[in-house]
Amino acid sequence: MKNSTWFVFILLYSGITLGQTPIVIPDTLSGTNIALNMHNDSVQLFPSGPKSKTFGYNQFAYLGPTIILNKGQVANFDVTNSIDDTTTVHWHGLHVPAMWDGGPHTPILAGEIWHPTFKVMDHASTYWYHPHWHMKTAKQAIKGAAGLIIVRDSTERSLNLPRRYGVDDFPIIIQCQQYDSLNQAMPLGMQDSTILVNGARANNGYSVYGDFPAQIVRMRLLNASGERSFLFGFTNDFPFHQIGSDGGLLNEAFHTTRILLSPGERAEILVNLSTLNGQTLQLMSYASELAMGIQGGPTMPMPNGPPMDSPLNGIDFNILQINVVAPTINPVTSIPSTLENNIPFLASDANVTRTIRFTADSMMVMDGPFYFNDSLFNMMRIDYNIPLNNVEIWKLVNETMVAHPFHIHDVQFFLLNRNETVMPTPSESGRKDVILVPPGDSLKFITKFEDFADSMVPYMFHCHILMHEDAGMMGQFVVTESFAGNSEIEPNNQILNVYPNPSNSILKVNMPLGKSTSEIVIFDNVGKICFQTTSSKDEESIDISQFENGIYMISILRENQYFHQKFIKK
Ligand code: C2O
Ligand code: CU
Ligand code: CU
To answer: pLDDT tens digit string along 330-356?
Structure first.
């Protein structure tokens, strides 16, 4: 092209482009002690009018740092709530004790600091964190309260995969939001038409680009949208390999041109850019190919005229422009043929099949409320008592006209089949914690409830369309060592001795764990912190005479280990 042609081209191009920004690669946090601080912030997302109010973690005005954890390590968190509302932080996809899972029973009140601590037991994969305060999850997550978690393990490390964060391994958080006329995010909007990539606007006159090296690169895709599903692919059907699903690597790299991610789902893909040096490629959503009933797909014809839907529905659009630049030193040049050895649980080992029907008041309901088995979420109702180590089949039956991404906490599962006869595709044959159930379909998955029994703090399962979740498309289960959720004292911890138990005035806590400082926290039966102190003594006396009668949990953190036990105030 001649210089003058370039000039005209650039003029034309800048005329239609309000902003072209390089992809933001969030800073990382790693190590044993990780501090998150959720705060109010604001961002000038729109060229005119007020800034959009946001939530961010740490130095970010929107989204949060990427947390990097190693399987086997202990991670201690300080989560500070600096917003003017209650929140929680949930480690989506991680297998952690219920009391540290960050569900709606463990609120962090405004101004408080929460100290979860757990051992990382998960397979290498891409997970994420976000608030889970009931009826506020959409509001908080959609204003930016979310971040990625990358878990590494020895299996993944032994493979020749791109893993240089921000160099050949790229975190890509995609959101689609609706903003009102004052530029504020609308958590319940059905006309979501603003695409954000790692927090930057990526459509309607804006675009986000990444300079990716001409070699095999890895992209960690997270759909952090409130409702929209994306059918990702590249321009001209440029092929790629999916190597991971929600909770780990697939057994083998899966060669494909499309990947569907519903809200909450993640996938890791490898793209071989080695032949494209100097060229560009778009990561797109091929929403025209989505089935009707999947949010983002073609709008369903309605008897009373079309619903107020997003202009993005059913069309193909760009998400991220990839400018292919010179390769790095030591590029990864081949894709390992085998990755993991996932061994799904055997259906013959399952003790129980639970059926969860997705229901609504009528077949015509498009925007909720939606129910599980005809009932709304109730904080005070435990939907299932699951014996520790149970292998279970969950059958999900979608009786509504809308696709719902079903998510379960605590575990990763394996899809057994869709509609009884359709075996999982390679894309869905790995470890999963979210799965999309299209309208009218059913599916079965199998999982095992291991390691963490707690008859008091439940785990959640819910639709990951955040508006559906907040409106009550959620349930909860406890995993118990004994059946029927009995809440007797289980003296399962000799290191920590709490006595007398029951007690009515002074509770003695014996912790012969060395001389370092302990954090002591007492939670009530809904997970609210009612007492907190630090101590470096062997024995501490705590006055509980002002506590209401009931069951409490005491949790002690000392030398990177935590201990917890229940006691009764009588
Ligand atoms: Cu991503 Cu229960 O949540
Ligand atoms: Cu979760
Ligand atoms: Cu739903």
So the answer is: 999 999 989 999 999 999 999 899 999
∠ CA 139-433-89, nearest 5°, is: 40
Atom 3 in ligand 1: which residue has the minimum CA distance? 92
- Residue 434 alpha carbon, nearest atom of ligand 1: 1
CA angle 465, 460, 118 (to 5 degrees): 115
Terminal-to-terminal C-alpha distance of the chain: 84
- Ligand whose nearest atom lies closest to the CA of 247: 2
The ligand minimizing its distance to the Cα of 92 is 2
**Exposure string for 401-414, b = 16+ CB within 10 A, e = fewer:** bbbbbbbbbbbbbb
> Which atom of ligand 1 sits closest to the CA of residue 462?
2
Query: 179: number of CA atoms within 13 Å, CB side?
Result: 22
- Which pLDDT band holds residue 491 (cuts at 50, 70, 90)? very low
264 CB under 6 A from ligand 1? Answer: yes
What distances in angstroms separate CA 173 from CA 25, 285, 351, one per listed residue? Answer: 10, 14, 38
The pTM of this model reads 0.84
Please indicate whether residue 462, judged by its CB atom, sits closer than 6 Å to ligand 1: yes
How many angstroms separate the CA atoms of 558 and 538, rounded?
11
Q: What is the maximum alpha-carbon separation in the chain?
A: 87
Q: Apex CA 357: angle with CA 351 and CA 362, to 5°?
A: 170
State in Å: Cα 344 to ligand 3 middle. Answer: 26
Highest mean pLDDT among 48-57, 486-495, 502-511, 556-565: 48-57
Give the tens place of pLDDT for each residue, 163-199: 999 999 999 999 999 999 999 999 877 789 999 999 9
Least confident of 113-117, 362-366, 385-389, 443-447: 362-366
Q: How far apart are CA 121 and CA 96, in angstroms?
A: 8
Ligand 1 atom nearest to CA at 460: 2
Structure confidence by residue, pLDDT tens digits, 383-423:
999 999 999 999 999 999 999 999 999 999 999 999 999 99
- Give me ligand 2 centre to Cα 92, in Å: 4
User: What whole-number distance in Å separates Cα of residue 243 and Cα of residue 219?
Assistant: 10
Pairing between strand 74-82 and 33-43?
parallel
Residue 359 CA: distances (Å) to CA of 43, 124, 301: 38, 35, 21
Nearest ligand to residue 465 Cα: 3
Which strands form 391-398's sheet, in the order they lie side by side? 370-372, 352-360, 391-398, 442-448, 414-418
State the distance from the centre of ligand 3 to the C-alpha of 473, rounded, in angstroms: 7
Nearest CA, atom 1, ligand 1: 92
- Ligand 2 centre distance from Cα of residue 31 (Å): 22
Domains of the chain: 347-480 (2.60.40.420), 497-569 (2.60.40.3080)
How far apart, in whole angstroms, are the C-alpha atoms of residue 171 and residue 178? 23
Q: What distance in Å separates the CA atoms of residue 175 and residue 195, rounded to the nearest whole number?
A: 6
Which tokens is 451 given? 């390691």
Calpha distance 209→202 (Å, rounded): 9
pLDDT-derived band at 495 (thresholds 50, 70, 90) equals low
Question: Is residue 266 in contact with ligand 1, taking CB distance under 6 Å?
Answer: no
Q: Is 468 in the pocket of ligand 1 (CB under 6 A)?
A: no
